[in-house]
Write a structure and sequence with these properties.
Distance between the termini: 16 Å
Strand content: 25-35%
Number of strands: 14
Mean pLDDT: 94
Largest sheet: 8 strands, mixed
Low-confidence stretches: none
Number of helices: 8
Shape: globular
Oligomer: single chain
Helix content: 25-40%
């Protein structure tokens, strides 16, 4: 049984539709006790990091997610769920779950700090949020949720903030949008997609299928 973490952060219906299409059994809940029997956890979400963390704390889902991660349960974070698994987000100066070391930076801050001035001028033509289809390239070895998906496949992105992990080796796939954008993360049993696999056609459904079919350690 798959557990879907419901913390009032949106984007859950589209995940449910994708799982229905794949024939998966799942439970969606705000109650940690109802999710504890799940063999895998999907942690979706849209919106604001500060609001998301506030909701997780109120529902005690922050404690649940940390315990699940420490217990070796496979977790798949999607969009805001891919960001707040890290330590800190510039969005609302928010302390996050801390499942993986790293921070979440706004595109504009990242561009101005990491890119030469002439490139920054080119980036002024890029819109924030990064919205739409973008291809993803692979690095740092194999990743189970990418099995059978050709490199440079396109996925659907909507985000203004960028994952910046402390250990670069956890980045398994990246896009380019004025800078290198970590798009697929794996750190042991924790996986994350900055894009929306449930809105990314066949390649996105394959990511979800790979996650569903993954054997727990």
């Amino acid at each position: 049984m798959i557990g879907i973490v419901d913390y009032n952060a949106g984007n859950i219906k589209s995940v449910e539709r994708a799982l229905d299409f794949l024939g998966a059994s799942y439970v969606r809940s705000k109650n940690p006790q109802e999710l504890k029997g799940a063999s895998k956890i999907i942690f979706p979400g849209d919106g604001d990091a500060a609001y998301a963390m506030e909701q997780l704390r109120e529902l005690k889902l922050d404690v649940f997610l940390r315990e699940a991660a420490n217990g070796g349960i496979p977790i798949l974070g999607i969009c805001i769920g891919a960001q707040i698994i890290f330590d800190f987000s510039e969005e609302g100066n928010t302390n996050c779950l801390g499942l993986i070391p790293g921070a979440i930076r706004h595109f504009s801050n990242l561009w101005h700090e990491q890119i030469a001035n002439d490139a920054c001028k080119k980036n002024s033509a890029l819109k924030i949020p990064h919205m739409g289809w973008n291809n993803v390239r692979y690095e740092n070895g194999a990743c189970a949720i990418l099995d059978g998906i050709p490199e440079n496949s396109d996925f659907y992105f909507v985000h203004s903030y960028v994952i910046q992990p402390k250990e670069k080796s956890v980045v398994k796939g990246f896009a380019e949008y004025g800078a290198k954008v970590p798009a697929v993360i794996q750190s042991e049993n924790i996986f994350a997609c900055q894009f929306h696999p449930e809105k990314s056609g066949e390649a996105g459904l394959k990511i979800l299928r790979n996650f569903l079919d993954m054997k727990n350690n």
